[in-house]
Amino acid sequence: MPYFTEPRNIELSTLEYLTTQIDASWSGVTVVKTFTQAYSKNINLPIVCVRLLDQSSSRLEIGSNTLDNRYGIAIDIFARSDGQRIDLANFILDKLKDGWVYYVFSHKSGDKSQLEKTADGRIQVTDFMENYRIDFGELEVDEKDRFRHFISVRVRKS
User: Fold this and answer.
1) pTM of the entire structure?
2) How far apart are the C-alpha atoms of 68 and 127, rounded to whole Å?
3) What is the C-alpha separation between 83 and 134, in angstroms, rounded?
4) Distance CA 104, CA 49 (A)
5) Domain chopping of the chain, boundaries
């Protein structure tokens, strides 16, 4: 059973966590993994797009081959109104501050269309990097870009 890499597990664990939290408290919000999905004509607002941005690594200590990996997570909010944008951003930040379960994902034996997961630690936010409204100014913009918000955090597996 091929297991996914740690960066992929970080992204999938975060996506699953935010989907579960948003579904439990909001109605009609779609959580996606790519901009292609977010801009799809088949998905209506509001939308939250969660994706892995980058990975940075440093040695855990001098002379060690163990790396301290940190991952950048981007969260784009596509809202219906400015108020909804503010509320969703605040909700997401509140959920991220407590951390969430890190899962090791793999394809189900004999079935690559389904994933299996096993809990293997926690993900903690180490830095809240960015949290702002994306303002396109006076330009005519796509309906999905009218009330956009961007959040980025740096996380690590513990």
Assistant:
1) 0.91
2) 15
3) 14
4) 21
5) 6-157
**Helix or strand run (H / E) with residue 121:** strand 111-134
Most distant CA pair in the chain, distance: 55
**Fold type of domain 6-157:** STM4215-like (3.30.2000)
Only one residue has tokens 């940075």, namely 56
How much is the pLDDT for 43? Answer: 96
H-run or E-run covering 56: strand 47-59
Question: Cα separation of 48 and 16, whole Å?
Answer: 12
Q: How high does pLDDT run on average in the chain?
A: 93
Q: Strand 148-157 to strand 67-78: parallel, antiparallel, or no bridges (unpaired)?
A: antiparallel
- What are the residues whose beta carbons fall under 8 Å from the beta carbon of 43, sequence distance 6 or more? 30, 32, 37
Q: What is the DSSP letter of 44?
A: P
CA nearest to 158, candidates 4, 6, 15, 33: 6
8 A C-beta contact, residue 99 and residue 114: no
